[in-house]
Amino acid sequence: MSAIILFTAVSIAQLLLSLSMAIASVRIVIGPRAQDRIISLDTLYICAMLLLVTFGIGTGRTVYFEAALVIGLLGFVATVALAKFLMRGEVIE
To answer: How far is the C-alpha of 42 from the C-alpha of 57, rounded, in Å?
Structure first.
């Protein structure tokens, strides 16, 4: 019984995360300002990271968790670099 509930919850989570990734992708394309595009890029990498975590939960393999960790680290660094670029006009001082 609990395996059925877990499978259903993971499937619904994957579907909703895929939908939110599609919406964030649309926002990247039509965002009127650079700040909107950066926020939607941040949302996109968080959703991708969470989608990998749900794949890992569903399959029970640890490689998905490691890939999610790498995406999280690289996404954070990219967000900080883009925010610094928008604030100062340069990334490296």
So the answer is: 23
